[in-house]
Every structure is written in C-alpha cells, then in structure tokens.
C-alpha cells in the first residue's frame, strides 16, 4: 500500500482550530518561539508540524524547490528529530536521547541558509529521556531569533512542566468520519473505497491507526485478536502476544481498537440471540462490562503513559477470565 508521508506536503485536513491559531499568529507577526502539538497517536501531529514548517519556509507550493527539499529531507533550514530504530531488536528505540537532540543547538545558532526561519521538529517529544529534555529546556530558556521549535507529543504529562510552560499548545482532536474518508482517500490512493469505509470506524478519528489497519500490521493484529477471543491465552502466551503487539508502530492502540470492537460486536450478537432470555441478557452484560474495563484500561494507560506491556497483560487476563 503506497501512502503519503508527513514530509510529502499534503495540506492538513481537519484540525481547523489549530490551523487558524497558527495562521493568525503568523499573519500578525506574533509567532511564539516554541509550539507543542498534542493529541492521540496517529492523529496527524507530524503532518501538521511539517505543514507549519512549510509555511515558515515558504514551501507551501507542492512543486516548489523548497517543498521538494523538505520532502527529500535536505532543506538546510529544517531539522527533524525523532526516535531511531533499534537495529538489534527491529523496533523503534524506547527513547530520544541527548545525542539525538545535541545537533539542535548548533543548527539554531547558525545563520539561516535562505535568510529566513530555522525550524526544528521534535517528533514524539514525550519519548525524550531526562538528559534530552534538559537540553531542549535550555534552548527554550534562551531561544535564538527567527528560530522555531515544534514538538509533537501524545502524552504531554511526560514532558517537564517547564517545557510545557514555554510552549504554545495546539491540541489536535480526532477527525470526524467525513474528514477521515477524505484523508484516507488521499494518502492511500491504491486502497479500494469499500476497504477504507470498513477500516475508518475502527480507527476512532486517527488516520495513522487506519493506515496501520490497512497495512499488514492490521491483518496481523486482527489475527491475534481472533486467536485471543477463540482460545484465551495462558500466562506464557500472554507475554508472547504482548511482545508481538509492542514490536509494531501504533501496535498498542490498534490492538486495543480491534479487541474492543470485536468484543462490542460479540456483545450485540449475544443480546440479539438471547431473545430476551435472562441468560442471554446476562452474557451480553458481561461482555459489555469487559468492553468497558478494557476501554478504561487503554485510556488510562495512554493518558498517564503507564507501562504498555503491563496494560496488555492485564487486558489479556481480563479476556481470559470472561
């Protein structure tokens, strides 16, 4: 499946309030030196950050030289920082470390190559360890002129309060159904419309999760969910399942989306088949309660950035005891 990346330069779809706030600040010449983009995983924070960068670097025209350099990762006035890949474990590294952010200081204090703004995007700032966060804080305390930091973050509670207080926050909300269809039709052009229509409701307003569901990860995680519901795993199998889920980018939210959706459908089926009987109603209520507990577990884990492996193990234990 071919899909556009945040670097490729599509105009943001949705997030109108955040876009309006930035455009008003830009138009009035009152840009804050640091912006914090928050919202659920896969909501489009990185895409919005690159759109901001293209505005600042006069690269909004898709065919402009500046836009092509941004897409290629070669624009001299744009620096992108994110977690790297752990080659040994074949998964994203757990943290952004001090060595990752160290180039920012030198980058921001040099003269802009095109006599304009210098832009730094730190994608996934909530993954910074303490040393990296302190390095960013020092930059925020003494911001150089005509330099902008854009931090994206799914769990702002993990950031130092002193970092949050020095940024202007823009909250990106889940996209409504019509906007989801629009985004997915654009970034997944080779996917059939009926497949997009099937997946979109499972993604809860997150294009990133929808793309994961459309890709191989969605199929693999769907197979895991089916296996869990058909044969509740023992303790050893639970650890294997948790490890398999966490290997995948966006694996945790996608797995919970699929699991909760399957349980919700099962609860509805039980309610309909029960024909009003006490046993049928009781089974449906048990499944509905399981759905609620899993949804609460997932929301609490993401909100407070709790241990995702432990959350998965707790969720699988709930399913096994249903």
UniProtKB/TrEMBL annotation:
Coiled-coil regions listed: none
Question: What InterPro entries does this protein map onto?
Answer: DNA_Rep/Repair_Clamp_Loader, P-loop_NTPase
A GO CC term assigned to this protein in UniProt: DNA polymerase III complex
Pfam families xrefs: DNA_pol3_delta2 (PF13177)
Question: Does this entry carry the keyword Methyltransferase?
Answer: no
Offer one example of a GO biological process linked to this entry.
DNA-templated DNA replication
The UniProt GO MF terms for this protein read: DNA-directed DNA polymerase activity
Keywords in alphabetical order, please: Nucleotidyltransferase, Transferase
Q: Which Gene3D superfamilies match?
A: P-loop containing nucleotide triphosphate hydrolases
- Which EC numbers does the record give? 2.7.7.7
Query: Is Nucleotidyltransferase one of the keywords UniProt gives this record?
Result: yes
Give the domain of life. Answer: Bacteria
Entry-linked NCBIfam families = PRK07471.1
Q: What is this protein called?
A: DNA polymerase III subunit delta
- Per the UniProt record, the source organism is Gluconacetobacter sacchari
